Amino acid sequence: MSALFEARGITKRFGGLTALHGVDFSLDAGIASIIGPNGAGKTTLFNIFTGLYGADEGAVTFRDHALLGLRPDRITALGICRTFQNIRLFANMTAFENVLVGMHARVSLGLLDVLVRGPRFRHTEGVLHARASALLERVGLLRQANEVARNLPYGDQRRLEIARALASEPSLLLLDEPTAGMTGGEAGSLMGLLRALVADLGLAVILIEHNMRVVMEVSDRVTVLDHGERIAEGSPQEVQADTRVIEAYLGTRHSGGLRRRRAER
After folding, report:
1. DSSP readout, the chain?
2. What's domain 1-79+170-185+203-265's superfamily in CATH?
3. pTM, whole model, 2 decimals?
4. Which of 3.40.50.300, 3.65.10.10, 2.170.130.10, 3.40.1700.10 would CATH assign to domain 88-169?
5. Domain ranges in the chain?
6. Phi/psi at 258 (nearest 5 deg)?
C-alpha cells in the first residue's frame, strides 16, 4: 500500500545549479519536519510539492494522484494546502474575511446563485460563516475576528494563516517556518495547536522549521537536507545524534549534537 504522500527522486535545476538531487520523502500520518542549513533546498521542495515549481526528474503522488504538472489550485482541491515563510495574508481584510477566502476551493455556488441570493446562497453563506468562526476559535482568534489582518500581532498573523489554510479542508498541511519571528511562548502554543490538529482532525503535517526545539518536540519524523540532497531521516533522537547532520549544521570541527544549535532560532 502506498503512502498518503510520496515523493521519489526529486531533482530540480536552476540553470547550472542543482537545487535538489534525487530527494525521496514520504508521509502516512502525523508530523514530519524537513530541516537543513540555509540553501539546502527545503523551500524549493515545498514549491514542487505544491505546484509552484516543476521538477526536472522524479514523481510526487498524493493518495495515488500524480501531482507534478498540476496547477496549485488543483493540488489544493485534492486536499493539500500550505503557508509561506513570508506572511501572505490579505492585509486590508479582517481575520474573518481572510478565512472565508480560504474556503473558495470548497464552495459549489455558481454565478447565478450569487446574483439571485436565494435559499441555496443563504444556506451556504450561513454554513461558511459558522465554519469560519469555528476555525478562528480553534486557533485562538475568535475575539479578533473583525480585526484587520495587518493590525494583528505577528504571532496572531501566523495563526490566522493556519486558519485560512485549514479553511480549504486539507488532509495534508505544509507549513514553511510557522514559528519564524515568534517568541518562545508563542512557539510553544503553536506546537500545542499542531498536535491538536493531528489528534482531532487526523491531519498530516509537513514542517520546514529552523527552531530546533519545535522540531525535536513536535515531530514524529525528521528529514535532513544539505546541498539539495537527503543526508538523514529518522526520529528526532536519531537525527540529532547523526554525525552527518552535526557536520552539516556545525562543521566537522564540532562534536556536539543539535542541542548546541541555537534552540530558539
Report:
1. ---SEEEEEEEEEETTEEEEEEEEEEESSSEEEEE-STTSSHHHHHHHHTTSS--SEEEEEETTEE-TT--HHHHHHHTEEE--SS----TTSBHHHHHHHTTGGG----HHHHHH--HHHHHHHHHHHHHHHHHHHHTT-GGGTTSBGGGS-HHHHHHHHHHHHHTT--SEEEEESTTTT--HHHHHHHHHHHHHHHHHH--EEEEE---HHHHHHH-SEEEEEETTEEEEEE-HHHHHT-HHHHHHHH-TT----GGGS-TT-
2. P-loop containing nucleotide triphosphate hydrolases (3.40.50.300)
3. 0.83
4. 3.40.50.300
5. 1-79+170-185+203-265, 88-169
6. -65, -15
Q: Could you read off the pLDDT tens digit of each residue along the chain, which spans 265 residues?
A: 568 999 999 999 999 899 999 999 999 999 999 999 888 999 999 999 999 999 999 999 999 999 999 999 999 989 999 988 878 899 999 999 999 888 765 556 555 555 556 666 666 666 788 889 999 999 999 999 999 999 999 889 999 999 999 998 899 999 999 998 888 888 998 899 999 999 999 999 999 998 888 999 999 999 999 999 999 999 999 998 898 888 887 665 444 444 444 333 3
CATH fold match for the domains 1-79+170-185+203-265 and 88-169:
yes
Give the span between the Cα atoms of 214 and 187, in whole angstroms.
Answer: 7
Q: Which of 30, 23, 25 lies closest to 171 in space, CA to CA?
A: 30
Q: Please say whether the beta carbons of 127 and 99 come within 8 A.
A: no
Q: How many Å apart are CA 72 and CA 98, to the nearest integer?
A: 19
